[in-house]
């Protein structure tokens, strides 16, 4: 039985661009940096940036959700002002609020805030 998540891998085409996005735009920590594999972390989450595979988006694939440090509204506005591609508005659901966006390589990400 799996007891934890070691890492989430996302394909990237441009490692420098991807590192800049995850480090500078999202504020994650770069733990390892190389031309074909880098790792960024936030808390217990480790994201592997994999340039060894062809990057492409597929509808219905995995989505990485981030909990904003401040309000989801403030973080949505900050990302949008930073030029991040927001793929939808903030939506409210009984299980929480989400705001979908893309990383620099076209991978699906979202902000998530639990219900108040």
From TrEMBL:
Q: Which InterPro entries does the entry link to? A: Anthracycline_SecMetBiosynth, Glyas_Bleomycin-R_OHBP_Dase, Glyas_Fos-R_dOase_dom, VOC_core
Q: Where is the VOC domain?
A: 4-114
Q: Which Pfam families does the record match to this protein?
A: Glyoxalase
Q: Which SUPFAM superfamilies would you find in this protein's record?
A: Glyoxalase/Bleomycin resistance protein/Dihydroxybiphenyl dioxygenase
User: Which domain of life, per UniProt?
Assistant: Bacteria
Record-linked PANTHER family: GLYOXALASE-RELATED
What protein name applies here? VOC domain-containing protein
């Amino acid at each position: 039985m799996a007891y934890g998540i070691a890492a989430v891998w996302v394909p990237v085409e441009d490692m420098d661009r991807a590192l800049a996005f995850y480090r500078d735009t999202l504020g994650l920590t770069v733990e390892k940096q190389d031309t074909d594999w880098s790792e960024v972390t936030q808390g217990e989450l480790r994201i592997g940036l994999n340039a060894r595979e062809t990057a492409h988006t597929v509808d219905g694939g995995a989505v990485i959700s981030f909990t904003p440090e401040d309000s989801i509204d403030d973080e949505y506005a900050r990302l949008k002002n930073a030029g991040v591609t927001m793929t939808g508005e903030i939506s409210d659901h009984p299980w929480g609020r989400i705001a979908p966006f893309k990383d620099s390589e076209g991978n699906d990400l979202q902000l998530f805030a639990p219900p108040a």
